[in-house]
Write a structure and sequence with these properties.
Elements: H1 3-13, H2 27-52, E1 58-60, E2 65-67, H3 75-86, H4 90-103, E3 111-113, H5 114-130, H6 148-160, E4 174-176, E5 188-190, H7 192-195, H8 198-208, H9 212-225, E6 237-239, E7 245-247, E8 249-250, H10 257-270, H11 273-289, E9 291-292, E10 295-296, E11 298-300, E12 306-308, E13 310-312, H12 318-324, H13 328-345, E14 351-353, E15 358-359, H14 371-383, H15 387-402, E16 404-405, E17 408-409, E18 412-414, E19 419-420, H16 427-440, E20 454-458, E21 461-465, E22 471-472, E23 478-479, H17 491-512, E24 527-532, E25 538-543, E26 562-564, E27 567-569
Antiparallel strand pairs: 1-2, 3-4, 5-6, 6-7, 8-11, 9-10, 11-12, 13-14, 14-15, 16-17, 18-19, 20-21, 22-23, 24-25, 26-27
Helix pairs in contact: 2-15, 2-16, 3-4, 3-5, 3-16, 5-6, 6-8, 8-9, 10-11, 12-13, 12-14, 13-14, 14-15, 14-16
Length: 573
């Protein structure tokens, strides 16, 4: 696997598609209109949460009150925090940051989902920490390697570590934040609940310098990989003490989905060829056994025979994931199938029978999930196809018509008659609204293609942040990958930096006519051009000629500086 693949993926997440169209049917004015409508949706939900539900985890929109769901964390507030910044509300972002800094306490006698606490709480706090400067927060000296939100994220993650103390390294699904794992806790955990930690935990380890988080996340991934069936598939639920599969249905939907997502995104974030290789192996066997006419069905993990010919709404993330590895053609075909289901019901039912073309009994609900919009955002950034803007428009119109109530937006209990449930999950503000806004906002800072950035000084030197390439965790909390290189220097990175610096200085000596005895590096090896940065500075843009890029992607410019893995070298270096 060439580094060029990771570079392509890295910049696609940033929305670097230079040829992205504005949408033939909607147009620039229509996009501006829908941005404002999405903002209105956010504030209708967010303000009602603050007025009627805070400090509970979630809003109950039909009764205009709140409830704790995942651990009594004021979860909606944490989940909505970086969305505030995406919408440009710096003032409220700062206010909520101060509330969390002063009021968060994880030393509580509460049984919490290890998976949900990680993706929502740890992920939300890490994202807000890394976006603090973007949000106008006065950061501590040494940031992003230190900071109050980082300390809160670390504290929350440490409360989860007892769950990983199993013979297999695969974690229990639930942990008591004060007392650890209950002796009577079931050892059965879903696959996603084991394989969805590497983004948050590796980020924590790289920022804090404590390797334990990344180590346990990798050991959990190893446990899953080593538990594959002979035909290369994983099931849905496994006993973390014995590695015995309890639910043997293999697919890409509920209970499995974000495991595959984190293999790809972990590979990009950490430049890890092993993680990408694992995903590509899975993709090959999934295509072989599960894919039929651009649908993905559930199969028996040992035999490969079809067990459930259904589409689950959570599977709608898959086209977006395919776009990250450059498989645009297959992503478009599968997205088309999912969009047709949306058009049939005005939402994606939790389960949809592919042979019958209808919902599955007792699985007719639509809790305002984000996955189809998420894929639309990725694919629009990659292709500029206005179909994806049309999907965004349809989602906004449907949610406003079906789900809006006086105190927020309610889960749809049944898409056939549009009856509602008294719940608004926090992911509505963390993911659904965020992806909708990003779909209609091509100039959002999260879509930065490297034309603007800022530098910070850490105990390890100066590094570049905010230059794009953001990776979203499975709760849509963006992580700036450059930050991982600000707070540590691995041996391999030092070798790469040294080699590139030697090349850099050799080129300078050649220009000035001063040569070392060693062979000079030819400047033609690194084609360079200039462009004007968003901040008005002139920035140099280098293009790596090595390897074949799966997708076209711009290189990351740095103003009059050479930057390698987050380390910045000025001309005087």
């Amino acid at each position: 696997m060439h580094r060029a693949l990771y570079t392509a993926c890295f910049f696609l997440v940033a929305g670097a598609g230079g040829n992205v169209a504005k949408g033939n049917d909607i147009g620039a004015e229509g996009m501006a209109e829908y941005r404002e409508r999405v903002k209105g949706m956010f504030y209708h939900a967010y303000n009602n949460y603050l007025e009627n539900a805070f400090p509970y985890d979630e809003l109950r929109p039909l009764t205009c009150d709140g409830q704790d769901t995942w651990g009594s964390f004021s979860l909606t507030l944490i989940d909505a925090l970086d969305t505030l910044l995406v919408l440009g509300n710096v003032t409220e972002f700062q206010r909520v940051v101060h509330i969390l800094q002063d009021g968060m306490n994880f030393d509580i006698d509460v049984n919490a989902s290890v998976f949900e606490t990680n993706i929502r709480v740890v992920g939300g706090l890490l994202s807000a920490h890394l976006l603090s400067r973007e949000g106008g927060i006065a950061v501590e000296p040494g940031w992003p390697c230190v900071g109050p939100l980082l300390r809160l994220a670390e504290e929350a993650a440490r409360k989860l570590l007892p769950a990983f103390q199993t013979p297999t390294g695969m974690p229990f699904g639930t942990v008591n934040l004060m007392n650890g794992v209950n002796p009577s806790e079931t050892p059965v955990t879903c696959t996603a609940g084991i394989g969805t930690f590497i983004l948050e935990f590796a980020t924590l380890s790289r920022l804090t310098g404590d390797p334990v988080f990344e180590e346990v996340a990798r050991k959990a991934l190893d446990g899953l990989w080593n538990s594959r069936s002979d035909i290369g598939l994983v099931g849905n639920h496994i006993d973390v003490l014995t590695s015995k599969w309890v639910a043997q249905d293999a697919g890409i939907g509920a209970g499995v989905d974000s495991y595959f997502e984190y293999l790809v995104k972990g590979a990009i974030l950490l430049q890890d060829e092993g993680l990408m290789s694992s995903f590509l192996d899975y993709e090959r066997v999934i295509t072989n056994y599960s894919k039929f006419d651009d649908w993905y069905v559930w199969v028996q993990m040992y035999k490969g025979t079809v067990s459930m010919p259904v589409f689950q709404s959570l599977e709608a993330f898959w086209p977006g994931l395919q776009s990250l590895i450059g498989d645009i053609n297959n992503a478009m075909k599968t997205f088309h199938n999912y969009y047709q289901v949306w058009k049939q019901y005005g939402g994606l039912p939790e389960f949809y029978s592919i042979p019958q073309g209808s919902t599955v009994d007792k699985r007719e609900g639509y809790p305002l999930r984000p996955e189809l919009v998420e894929s639309a955002m990725y694919l629009y950034r990659a292709t500029g196809d206005p179909t994806f803007l049309e999907l965004g428009r349809d989602v906004v119109e449907a949610i406003e018509k079906i789900s809006r109530v006086d105190c927020g937006y309610a889960t749809v209990r049944d898409l056939r008659d549009h009856k509602l449930d008294n719940r608004m999950e926090s992911f509505f503000l963390a993911e659904t609204v965020k992806y909708l806004y990003l779909l209609f906002d091509p100039d959002n800072f999260l879509h930065n293609d490297g034309t603007s950035f800022h530098t910070v000084t850490t105990p390890y030197g100066e590094c570049v942040l905010g230059a794009g390439g953001y990776l979203f965790n499975t709760e849509a909390h963006p992580i700036d990958p450059a930050a991982l290189h600000c707070c540590s220097r691995h041996r391999q990175e030092r070798w790469e930096v040294e080699a590139l610096m030697q090349e850099f200085h050799s080129a300078r000596y050649e220009r000035t006519g001063s040569h070392h005895a060693s062979s000079p590096v030819q400047r033609s090896q690194h084609g360079k051009s200039k462009r004007t940065a968003q901040n008005g500075d002139r920035a140099k843009k280098g293009r790596n000629k090595k390897g074949g890029c799966v997708l076209s992607c711009p290189s990351q410019p740095f103003s009059s500086k050479l930057a390698v893995l987050g380390q910045v070298f000025t001309d005087s270096s």
